[in-house]
Specification:
Elements: E1 2-7, E2 10-15, E3 25-34, H1 37-44, H2 46-56, E4 68-69, E5 73-81, E6 94-97, E7 100-101, E8 107-108, E9 122-126, E10 130-132, H3 139-142, H4 145-158, E11 164-169, H5 173-184, E12 190-193, H6 197-205, E13 210-212, H7 223-226, E14 230-235, H8 242-249, E15 255-258, H9 270-276, E16 279-282, H10 288-299, E17 309-313, H11 318-324, E18 333-336
Length: 340
């Protein structure tokens, strides 16, 4: 099969062996797979990603410098069943799955050498982790279940109180997923701060109450935020120095939810957070229930993910788009369709 491999930032399309489903696994055809910010991190900061993963472990990790097939935001079509499976859905059914395969050592889809991710024509998934895509939902929309589940989990972990004013820092794919879930829950006001004009436009499409370029003004000084009874900030950028900046700008008693992944060593001054009694909540991924809920919210139109998709591409274009995604003015969400 054809696949886009990544090795130390270099991305190339090659023909590799088709994966073979083992006990309890399903062979699936990758229909659509989103390019995630963590995929870009893995390609641009491979050394830091691997170093930190080897030191700390955890569910979100990359521990090899060998070629891998990225892609964990996917929708796929059932092709065949491996041994000791229940044949729980008919062949050709569209499914989404939490991107982990249950083997003796759980394998993260898109971040290991043993299994290909969604930037390949075929994949394997664990039967007990699949969720059937509702009828009439196209694969390129269902593929956004995973990032929308990340946003849903972040919002749930914030434990928002009534009349909370929120700031979303960064309108990349993660920030937009958080914004979409905040608006789906009826939260207002939601202020999005973002340098990119293109991304501010995408945030407005998703219902942001206010968008602001931090070069032209501080979102923390807006009366809609400053005068609110409760305040929460979602950090969706993941760059060094951001947490310290948020500590400085946050109001007393603010909740800061850290959704962005910073791979570099960072610094922040705890005394600022102590003096303000800030609550800092780091988040990772989602629960299986949140994953299924996100898919259903997409299916019913509550999460209108079509608005943030700007490009659908084939495997031969993956390398080019990995480079161009460095410019936030060019793209929103990019979907890879391996069979195009």
């Amino acid at each position: 099969m054809k696949a886009a491999l990544m090795e130390r930032g270099d991305i190339r399309v090659e023909t590799i062996k088709d994966p073979i489903p083992q006990k309890g696994e399903i062979l699936v055809r990758s229909i659509a797979c989103g390019i995630c910010g963590s995929d870009l991190h893995a390609a641009r900061h491979t050394e830091e990603f691997v170093k930190t993963s080897r030191e700390a472990g955890g569910a979100f990790k990359l521990t090899t410098f060998d070629p891998i097939v990225l892609g964990h935001e996917f929708c796929a079509q059932v092709v065949d069943y491996g041994p000791e499976t229940q044949h729980s859905v008919p062949i050709d059914t569209l499914v989404c799955s939490v991107p982990v395969v249950h083997r003796q050592t759980p394998l993260p889809i898109g971040y290991c050498t043993e299994l290909p991710g969604g930037f390949a024509e075929y994949m394997v998934v664990s039967e007990n982790l699949i969720t059937t895509v509702p009828r009439d939902i196209p694969g390129h929309l269902a593929a956004l279940t995973e990032p929308m589940a990340v946003g849903l989990h972040a919002v749930n972990k914030a434990e928002l109180k009534r009349d909370t004013a929120c700031i979303v820092v960064g309108a990349g794919p993660v920030g937009l997923a958080v914004l979409a879930n905040l608006k789906a829950k009826g939260v207002s006001p939601v202020i999005v701060t973002e340098y990119s004009t293109k991304r501010r436009e995408l945030a407005e499409r998703l219902g942001a109450d206010i968008t602001i370029n931090p070069e032209s003004g501080s979102p923390y000084e807006l009366p809609e935020f400053y005068n609110a009874t409760e305040t929460t900030i979602f950090e969706c950028v993941g760059v060094p120095g951001m947490l310290d900046e948020l500590y400085l700008n946050a109001r007393n008693q603010t909740t800061i939810v850290v959704v962005g992944v910073c791979l570099q060593t960072d610094h922040a001054r705890p005394l600022i957070a102590v003096n303000k009694e800030l609550r800092v909540q780091y988040v990772l991924g989602y629960t299986p229930t949140e994953f299924t809920e996100a898919l259903h919210l997409i299916a019913e139109g509550t999460l209108d993910v079509e608005k943030i998709i700007t490009h659908q591409i084939g495997l031969t274009e993956v390398a080019t788009y990995f480079d161009s995604l460095a410019s936030p003015e060019m793209h929103g969400k990019v979907i890879v369709q391996p069979w195009d």
